[in-house]
Automatic annotation (TrEMBL):
This is Uncharacterized protein. It comes from Parnassius mnemosyne. Keywords: Immunity, Innate immunity, Membrane, Transmembrane, Transmembrane helix. Residues 143-280 form the N-acetylmuramoyl-L-alanine amidase domain. The keyword Transmembrane helix applies. The chain crosses the membrane at residues 95-114. GO terms for molecular function: N-acetylmuramoyl-L-alanine amidase activity; zinc ion binding. It comes from the Eukaryota. It holds the Pfam family Amidase_2. Belongs to the N-acetylmuramoyl-L-alanine amidase 2 family.
Amino acid sequence: MWISGDDHSHDQPGAPLVRWSTNSEIVAMDGVNLATSTAAPNVGNLSVTKSSRVHIGPKFVSVTQNLQNTEVVKGRCLGLELVSSKRARRLRCSVAVFVCWALLVACGLAIYLICVALPRQQTRLNIGLKEPWYLRRGDWQAMPPYEIEFLKLPVSYVIIGHAASNYCNQLYPCIEQMLVIQEAFLRRGMGDIGPNFLVGGNGYVFEGRGANVFGAMVSSWNDKSITIMFMGNYVLDMPDQAQFDHINVLLDVLVKEQVLRSDYTLYGQCQVQPDTCAPGHHITERMKNFPHWKPHNISGCIS
C-alpha cells in the first residue's frame, strides 16, 4: 500500500487488487466499489464579525440514559420497590403497619357509631298478644299518626279512664267507634288517638297508640304511664267481667315485655285528676278487679 496523489495499483500474486486515490470518492477492491469517501473540508481562512454564537471545531454533547428493569417500574407503580435497600424496605413495612392499624381503628369507630352512638330508629312495639279479642291498629284500620313520641320503658303506672262516648259490645260497631274516637282526637290536634289501649264491651281490646308510645289522656302522667280507656260512658253504661279479665291479661303481657315494672301501680283517672268522673262510678266500684289498684284519692272521684 502506498499514498500518492495519483492512482496506483498493487499487483501481487494472491493479493487483492486495490485502487485508492485521495481525490476519489470511491474505494475499489477487485473491481467492486465498496464504499464512498468524502474528503474532509479544508478551511484555510475564516473571518467572524460581531457574533457571539460561533463554535469552531468538534462539539461534544454528554447524553445520560438510565435503563431500568421493567419489573422494578411495575413495582413502583404498585407502590412496591422490588429491588431496594434494607432501610427502604423497613420504612415501607412501617408505613404498611400504620395503614393497617388506621384501617382497623376506622372500622371500629364506624361500628361504634352505627351500633352504639347513633340513635336507633324506634318503631311501635308488637307485644305479641295473639288472642281473638285483641286487635292491632291495622285490624281496626287506624289512620297513620301525625306525630309519634316514644316512652322510656319500663313505666310505673297504669291509668284507667273512659271515652264518655257510645257503648259497643260487638266487633264491627266497636271498630266504627274506634275510628270516631281517633277522628275526635285528631280534630283536637292530638296527632293520634289518645290512650295506649281501648276496651269495648265483651272484652274487645284495641291497640291505640301502642305499648311504647306517649299517650294523650292524662296530662302530667302520659310520660310515665300506660293509659287504658273503656269505650262508652260508664256513668250510665255497665261494664262486663270480660273487660276486666282481658285487661288483666294485657297488663301481664306488658310486664313480661318490660313495658311495665312488675310493681306498677294502677289508678282510676279521677284519682290522679281530681274533680272528674272518669272512668265512671260503675267502673270505679269494680276497680278491685285489678290486683295492682291502689285506693288513694278515691274521694276525688265524682259519682
